[in-house]
Structures
1.
Amino acid sequence: MLHLDRITKDYPGADGPVHVLDGVTLSLPPGGRLAIMGPSGSGKSTLLSIVGGLEPPTEGRVTLDGVDPYAADATALAAFRNRRIGFVFQDHHLLDGCTALDNVLVPALASGRVPIDLVARGSRLLERVGLADRITHLPGELSGGERQRVAVARALLLSPRLVLADEPTGQLDSRTAGDVAALMVELVAESGSMLVVVTHDDAIADRVGDIRRLRDGRLEP
Ligand SMILES: Nc1ncnc2c1ncn2[C@@H]1O[C@H](COP(=O)(O)OP(=O)(O)OP(=O)(O)O)[C@@H](O)[C@H]1O
Ligand SMILES: [Mg+2]
């Protein structure tokens, strides 16, 4: 279960603090899926960063399965991000010099050597996203849609409780975007994870599930 309780976020600005989020309250049940839409600058990426343990809220509380990541020390916070959250960004964030499989295995590197069962899971995930014959390709040898599929497989390697995707299909044509989104939803459902997707695309939002709109730092009712 994910709970956000009256989250606010202020950033320092030249003319005093900039109020980006203004009391966001939200719950997502286990396995729940949510699309967040809203105009540019409305705070969508900021909200995902707060949920994902990347940026503490100014006020309010986030809990995932009852755990407040910001209540713990830096080591525990890093472990929270690594083990419980899977991230998919607009720009794939793959390592250029690493094969598709090595990129998928990156989340497992935090705990040292990658156990053999995770290598097998990584290959299986690449097969599931239709890249069985691209496992040893470098990111530069993949299409944009293929790179995002690798990013989706990487996000799911450790079966995180929550997958956060920030405009994951923003740079893809509409057909490729639909395919990538469908795969993401499918794999998230298989691993029993929750999913929060930020998107500007109505068709993608519809595929994800419930839609909430952020405007002026607040979720519309
Ligand atoms: N680190 C930061 N320091 C100061 N201001 C920030 C910071 N990050 C974001 N902001 C400001 O917070 C507001 C919300 O930014 P955010 O990136 O969350 O918007 P968004 O809804 O994701 O927009 P987009 O759809 O364009 O990606 C913007 O006005 C932005 O300038
Ligand atoms: Mg954004």
Note: The two ends are 20 Å apart (CA to CA).
2.
Amino acid sequence: MAVTQWLSQVITEVGRAIERACFGQSHFRITTSEFSSTPTIDNLVQAKMALAEVRRQLTQDFSIDLRWPILLELKVPPAQGWKGAVYNPEGNMARHTVVDFKGTPAHQMWIRPGLTRARFKSLVAHELVHAFQREANFLNENLSLREGMARWVEFHFLKGSSEAERLLKLKHYTFGRSIEAILEYEFRSGRPATLTWLRSHA
Ligand SMILES: [Zn+2]
């Protein structure tokens, strides 16, 4: 992490120096934007940039806003026992839980390092949906719809990629067929109505 920050700083400084030397105060600019589009997410700086992008997209596309602090760790989530295999058909890649943080609730998230950027972001989106369900206190009882909603959002983050097609074919991915029911609801009634419908469940 520190090395990336340092490197990023150096590149920015060198870029500015070249810019000044060659173009004065021209509009030409060397940026470090390549650090926000690396193929895999391997350190916390990249992870936090991706997290910020996912949060913006969730607000914009799904009216999902989180108020509690988010504590993100880039590591393999702790083992969860036999139930994990049912709910996580792809294995142990990401997890969300609510923890106490200086006397207030916070969202603890673990995401496995080394995932592709697209996969990382879709898993963050999935876990942030669970975070939102807890914060806004809905879908506590309907486990099938609760997981279905998270996969529905995850699917939209991946849509158009071969990854999305692959996920829909996974044996347990369509758990309780909820994701299909939600996609159908959205197709018929639109996204705002779908979100209202999902949030009406206790
Ligand atoms: Zn889930």
Note: Residues 6 and 12 are 10 Å apart (CA to CA).
3.
Amino acid sequence: MNEDELNSIKDKIKREIEAAKTINQLNQISRGYLGKKGVISRLLKELKTLTKEERVRRGKKINELKCFLQEKLEEKEGLLKKEETKQEGAKFDITVPGRKLKVGHLHPLTQVKRKVEEIFQSMGFSIAQGPEIEDEWHNFDALNIPPEHPARDVWDTLYLREQKLLLRTHTSPVQIRYMEKHQPPLRIIAPGRVFRHEATDARHEFQLSQIEGLMVEREISVANLKAVLSEFFRKFFTKDINFRLDPDFFPFTEPSFNVSVTCVICQGKGCSLCKKTGYLEIAGAGMVHPNVFKNCGLNPKEWQGWAFGFGLDRLAMMKYRIDDVRLFRSADLRFLSQF
Ligand SMILES: [Zn+2]
């Protein structure tokens, strides 16, 4: 074996590695030279037959060849890997729009609640909260409904067994709690859940959402109430809407009204929903009763106020023309996904 043979092996290595197209082929080449029966292993075995001096000289050459081979293999492997990544990348079209993650949305009642809050906040009202489990004082007595008062029967109250507690039947106790802690002038709304012991049908639920409103000033009248309601309806229904106040009775307001708006279904012409009247009752309202002020430690000769209570479910039904209140809490996605 001479110098020429080593050089021709070197050339062969170069050509073979250059021609290799895959990592697999590179591995085969590597085995062909460095494996047990490979070319380089054979050359190293042949060293035994040489003299010591020759062995050293040739051994050095063979080692150089081995290094050359390894270097070339590594170099080519790097190139092939780079290309592979490029091709992988080419399989993906980065211009294709991403798939949107399916996310839920807010319940229609929550959407309506937030809209109402937003409108009243824009008119300077703050949002107040109160407990869903109430005592009789805040739910009834302080609101001018003493124990023997027949008006208590109007609210089919759910009582808790202990401590004379109950599930609040309206959001009006929040008025009391707020006036106990804050000095007028006041401007609040109080959204929340209320509970009634009631059989359910298309218009009644044992659990309802209400929004209470209260404004207390030194001089304030029904005209202010009408102005605020008018602004609210215009913003909530996004159009001018007719409404009217009819005399009603609530123990905590004097005078008291029920508030009706033009029927959203027939636009006032008269239909089965509005019982041919062209109007739908939507809220109760009135001027705060002097006894209510007294019960909160405020002087009724010094302060005046009005209050209202909307059924949030009713508002949502009118806005979206829904004819069955039970749908809201049915957890039926066919219904809910429409909002
Ligand atoms: Zn109607």
Note: The longest strand covers residues 207-217.
